[in-house]
Input
Amino acid sequence: MCARPTPDAHAPRSVIDDWQLLAQIVEVSGDAIFSEDMAGSITSWNAAAERVYGRAAADMLGRSTSELLPDETARQLSSVHDMALSGRRVDRFDTWHLRPDGRHIAVSLTVSPLRDTAGAMAGLATSVQDVTDRVRLSAELEDAHRTLEKQHVLLTRSNRDLEQFAYVASHDLSEPLRAMTGFVQLLEKRYAPLLDERGTGYIAHVVDGAARMRTLIEDLLEYSRFLLTDTASGRVDTAAAARRVVTVLGLTGVEVGVLPDVWLDEASVHAVLHNLVGNAAKFRRPERASRVVVSGSREDGSVVLRVDDDGIGVSPEHRDRIFRMFTRLHVREAYAGTGIGLAIVQQIAERAGGRAWVEESDLGGARFCITLPAVPDQVVLP
Output
């Protein structure tokens, strides 16, 4: 049992009862509570103080409160004691105390003056809350905040570099390609009679290579555009967007079902559908016309769009890497493309807080899926 002061044995019974009740309240308090006399010697030490400081009441009674103070906070706590001894209560003063093993603990103190029956100062009562976990969490949050600030600086720099790349790609790379293609075609036109079949073939290879490079640059610019832009979201009629894509691509055999509206920007929705529907139509089986079905459903606050086809499909071992930049599963002669379209789809999905994946389709080919934000429930329908 922790030591605590006792009332005068000659005091009235009601006073004794009140005193004992107060002593029990102090004893069972979750806060560490101890008292000291005017000389700074500890006169009481409750059970919570034993837990917080790791010191038994029997060891602490009569000892100086200075033993609880690290050297670096002794002067600071001395001013707090002086203030309390002058009769003023000190509330929630944050500082450090010391355990016997030398470990510092963060504490929040309330120091109150104690008076005798004549009203004279008799000592101090200190209530202590161990806030070490709170201080540690605060420090961790500050570290995380500093880390986020550094990452923000790096991201800003990365975006600036990407913007510079986009400028270079659209100007410094595209212009030489146009000039090279023009001069090679002029060479072919003017000197065709002097060229044999092999020379004509070389020219054709150069023109084809320049055309592929130009397409690659355009696709990279498209990818960077979705990295850099932050367009405001709004309601997008997904079914109408899908029908426009089918018309632009000039496709037949594409079925557009009833699709939930999404909460995104029009350009991103168009890019997703353009790449997924275009891929589905392109990777068809040579012996038959392609069939493509665009469907969707609302699930857990998101819209899942699905593009099914009856084409050549995607093998399970390639489904994780097919969304990477420049990934091609087939030779260029069989299926044209730069391998950036699906990377754009994944980039849009991730920026919108969703994901993109591919699985086997009931039609016999591939089913590409993407989750996009649904229209919020609080948005009033027109």
In short: The first helix runs from residue 13 to 28.
